[in-house]
Specification:
By secondary structure, this protein is an alpha/beta fold. The chain contains ten helices and ten strands. The longest helix is centred in the N-terminal third of the chain and has 20 residues, at 88-107. The model has no long low-confidence stretch (mean pLDDT 97). The structure holds zinc ion (ZN).
Length: 348
């Protein structure tokens, strides 16, 4: 039994050569899997399309209808940065369904862990609208399936994409069964993800945001993961860890303002995989989100997959930034003192 990946040529049909979120991103990852020889070490699963009911478990009927309607017209721009083309609809249904395929493999025990290399990305899609290159919220659809179809009671989603996963947050904001943790640049698109956004009602304390100043790299992310994210996971005791694996915090990213290296992503993924080992029999599923430097997204996604395989990725050729990083001590202390899931954790 080995790590599963989910990918499909139909994810490449959704593309706009003038857009940063284009098919070449996935081709770059596939090339990295092939040239490294890692593709031969994993089991490749074909995605199935998500069903209407699976989409409607996180989205409104209006939203799903809107996406279907755009498809009938042959696509177009839904907002200034979110496009559809001929064939996008199929890719979008397969992206949400592909995330479920990966989760199902892990929960059914046919894979110890998995990485869903899907497009279009999902974490900005809210219950009722597409935005930020995202149509359906793939990871949210998969988390809901884990609860509803597999009977889990607690799922954690960790989002290390450089943007706040506002859609995922919105979907589970009042839901205590899903812990949503996000590290992101702030102030930055989409503008949400403040420290005091912690969830509401049954979900109070099950949203954890770490908004960070520009220029944070491997050192800062490591601190935040060690002192905030991992302790929160231990407090929450998830039965499955899902990761919104975006690589746009890489230093070379054309839109992200952070300076993480491939090794930085390796280290974050390793901490999450280790936490899954301690908390939930190693059950962890990564779902691709952003990452717009083609070389960096290929190398970073490959390194994360190698972590899932239990390998130690080679340092790679892209290098790392050694300039001093912004001080995060105060942000971390604030979270440790104020967040319901972390209060008292420093002493524990
Ligand atoms: Zn992003």
């Amino acid at each position: 039994m080995t790590t599963a990946i989910v990918t499909d040529e139909r994810y490449l049909i959704h593309t706009d050569p003038t857009h940063v979120e284009r098919a070449e991103r996935l081709l770059s990852i596939q090339r990295a899997l092939d040239t490294s020889g890692v593709r031969a070490m994993v089991q490749q699963l074909a995605p199935r399309p998500a069903t209407q009911d699976e989409l409607l478990a996180v989205h409104t009927t209006d939203h799903v209808d809107t996406i279907n309607r755009y498809a009938v017209r042959g696509g177009g721009y839904i907002d200034t940065d979110t496009y559809m083309v001929e064939g996008t609809l199929e890719a979008a249904y397969l992206a949400a369904g592909g995330a479920i395929t990966a989760v199902a493999a892990v929960l059914q025990g046919t894979a110890p862990n998995a990485f869903a290399f899907v497009r279009p990305p999902g974490h900005h899609a809210t219950p009722d609208r597409a935005m930020g290159f995202c149509l359906f919220n793939n990871i949210a659809v998969a988390a809901r399936a884990a609860l509803q179809q597999f009977g889990l009671a607690r799922v954690a989603i960790v989002d290390y994409d450089v943007h706040h996963g506002n859609g995922t947050q919105d979907i589970f904001y009042g839901d205590g069964q899903v812990l949503f943790c996000s590290t992101h640049a702030a102030p930055y698109y989409p503008g949400t993800g403040r420290v005091d956004e912690i969830g509401t009602g049954d979900g109070a304390g099950a949203t954890l945001n770490v908004p960070m100043p520009y220029g944070v790299g491997d050192v800062g992310y490591q601190q935040v993961f060690q002192q905030v994210i991992i302790p929160a996971l231990h407090r929450f005791q998830p039965q499955l860890i899902l990761v919104s694996a975006g690589y746009d915090a890489h230093w070379s990213d054309p839109i992200g303002p952070m300076v993480v290296s491939v090794q930085g992503f390796t280290s974050m993924t390793k901490m999450l995989a280790d936490a899954a080992g301690e908390l939930c029999d190693g059950r962890i599923v990564l779902v691709l989100e952003g990452g717009y430097n083609l070389e960096a997204v290929g190398a970073s996604a490959l390194a994360s997959l190698q972590v899932l395989l239990g390998q130690t990725p080679a340092p790679g050729e892209m290098g790392r930034i050694t300039a001093p990083e912004p001080e995060l001590t105060r942000l971390i202390e604030t979270l440790q003192q104020q967040h319901p899931l972390l209060r008292g954790a420093a002493e524990a």
